[in-house]
Design brief:
- The chain has 570 residues and is of the alpha/beta class.
- The chain has a domain of 85 residues.
- It has twelve helices and 34 strands.
- The protein has a 19-stranded parallel sheet that branches. Strands 24-27-29-30 form a four-stranded mixed sheet.
- Strand 31 and strand 32 form a beta hairpin.
- The radius of gyration is 26 Å and the shape is globular.
- The N and C termini lie far apart (81 Å).
Length: 570
């Protein structure tokens, strides 16, 4: 009842399909994300991006901004409210129990779902949505390209583009953005930024913010200390991984591209120690700064994310920056080096252990962290200068200086990661001020600003990198010469090769004798080696190993080409 049905639809064996009264079709539903008891609620809508939700949930210290953003959402929701539902072109709805107050986009396929109530399915011809057997969904929005199947339960959730929810996954009061996967487990008050992946039945993600994250089996967190209720939250910055049975007691903040092993109760903030291992030992948290930089897994992750972008919709809601190294992560590396040096200065260079945020860093781990952080700074700054100077012939130092000078000052200062979008904080502040002042009043305008910042990333990145090159290498923009550039490139080459060699030797561990345990069943040592070789392949022919060796050669050639191009300049 009360539905407009478009052409080429096939509807069969449906118990109830109706619109009852005036409805917003899931738009405006309040999702109590991060804090189960409220206070960070996000009002979902068809055009919700991870970046909008990030600001709306975390910037509660700017009440005027939140008020304006709520008004923008309300305007959108009211505009799309109706007492009549729609079923788009080419939909197939078969063997479905109960559909009430749901707007169904073109080319949606719903087979065997039990109950869909108060929601929007934003399917289209470019990227259809599939809703499968025994699915129960209430107060929801499902974006293009997404599959919800296998008896999954969805309550008060936004599910972004090209997500996959399956195998009885249970989610309430949660936001899932582009390319997330949720299977078998449970989510509650979860802010799942792009590429948050959880596959295991025993995994609970609760009251946390994640992105580019893999959750190990049995990973969970606590937002409740049995005092004032489930009021705590945690933030795990982009690229983190948790091992099997890991646990974090919220509140806590974990730095980008960190690995969490074991159980952690210290409420630490390691956001300025990215690429670290957090390891439980004797009921304490030990931090090994920067060691994840030399892990083959980190590099594999960075390569796989762009390849696994399944969005086919030309109108992409989230602006996703896949870069492992960016002003956002490198500014934290600089801050991490300062923290480690201050610890050395305070406790002495010969101290066996150092204490940071109630966590322990050993002397060896601290020194290794400083070395690795310095290598990655050389790598990033060298990458930037080579990219800036590529494809241009120079005849004098003046021409080099002219090319190196940024076109403007956008990009200086701190950078932020708005759950996938990496941008200068000054530009985000400008956007927020424009929303507060009433200059921006529509969701589309906000999303256009995000898209522009994303498109201008490399221009703004160079402005930031140039400023850091001058301070880190103690150079002046008026006097920098070809010789200075060559010195930076040589240091860059040394850093790239040494890091790739560490990654190469880390990959070799996967082919060591201990990893052949269990191969060659019922056979001798030769058969064990043969069985391993047929299943896993040979180390030297492993695609990743070949790519790493090729990367070393390509980077050496890149550095040599620039040096040859400018070495004649005096």
């Amino acid at each position: 009842a009360n539905y407009s049905i478009s052409d080429d639809c096939f509807i069969q064996n449906v118990d109830v399909i109706m619109v009852d009264g005036f409805t917003r079709f899931g738009n405006g539903v309040e999702v109590c994300v991060l804090n189960e008891t409220g206070g960070r609620e996000v009002h979902i809508n068809d055009k919700l991006s991870a970046h909008f939700a990030y600001i709306y949930s975390l910037y509660r210290h700017r009440p005027v901004l939140i008020e304006r953003m709520k008004a923008i959402i309300d305007h959108y929701c009211d505009k799309h409210a109706s007492d009549r539902g729609s079923i788009g072109t080419g939909c197939k709805i078969v063997n479905v129990g109960y559909i009430k107050n749901v707007r169904i986009g073109a080319h949606t396929m719903i087979t065997g779902a039990m109950k869909l109530k108060n929601g929007s399915i934003n399917s289209n011809e470019h990227d259809p949505v599939y809703i499968g057997r025994n699915v129960i969904a209430e107060d929801f929005i499902i974006s293009s390209g997404t599959t919800v199947d296998g008896g999954s339960f969805i309550t008060r959730c936004f599910i972004g583009q090209a997500c996959h929810i399956d195998h009885g996954y249970s989610a309430s009061d949660s936001l899932f953005f582009s390319n997330c996967q949720g299977e078998n487990g449970e989510a509650c008050a979860l802010f799942a930024g792009p590429y948050t992946v959880t596959h295991h039945k025993s995994t609970l993600l609760i009251a946390g913010m994640f992105s580019f994250m893999n959750a190990g089996s049995g990973s969970n967190q606590s937002n409740h200390m049995y005092k004032l209720g489930p009021i705590h939250q945690g933030i795990v910055e982009r690229g983190a991984k948790t091992t099997s049975n890991s646990y974090v007691l919220w509140p806590a903040k974990v730095g980008a591209f960190s690995l969490i092993l074991g159980r952690h109760y210290q409420h630490a903030d390691t956001s300025n120690l990215p690429f670290s291992y957090l390891v439980e030992k004797d009921n304490s948290t030990y931090i090994a700064p920067a060691v994840n930089l030399r892990s083959v897994g980190t590099i594999r992750d960075a390569k796989k994310w762009p390849e696994r972008d399944k969005r086919k919709d030309p109108d992409k809601l989230d602006c996703i920056n896949f870069n492992l190294l960016s002003p956002y992560t490198i500014q934290k590396v600089f801050a991490g080096m300062e923290i480690l040096r201050n610890l050395q200065a305070t406790a002495g260079e010969t101290s066996e252990i150092y204490t940071f945020q109630s966590c322990i860093i050993t002397n060896r781990a601290l020194k290794r962290g400083l070395e690795l952080y310095e290598i990655i700074i050389h790598k990033f700054l060298g990458n930037s200068i080579i990219k800036r100077l590529e494809g241009t012939s120079f005849h004098s130092n003046e021409e080099i200086r002219e090319r190196l000078t940024p076109g403007n000052t956008l990009g200086l200062g701190e950078w932020v990661d708005l759950s996938g979008l990496i941008a200068p904080k000054t530009e985000i502040d400008t956007l927020l001020n424009r929303i507060e002042s009433g200059e921006i009043t529509r969701l589309q305008e906000i999303n256009e600003v995000f898209a522009t910042l994303h498109a201008n990333y490399y221009v703004n990145e160079w402005t930031w990198a140039w400023d850091k090159i001058l301070s880190f290498y103690q150079l002046s923009p008026e006097t920098i010469t070809a010789a200075d550039v060559i010195r930076i490139v040589r240091k860059w080459e040394e850093s790239v090769v040494s890091l790739d060699e560490m990654i190469y030797s880390d990959a070799r561990k996967e082919f060591s004798l201990s990893f052949k345990t269990g191969f060659g069943a019922d056979g001798n040592i030769q058969e064990k080696a043969l069985d391993f070789e047929y299943v896993r392949g040979v180390f030297d022919k492993n695609p990743f190993v070949i790519a790493t060796l090729k990367h070393i050669e390509v980077k050496k050639a890149l550095g040599k080409e620039l040096i040859d191009r400018i070495s004649h300049i005096r």
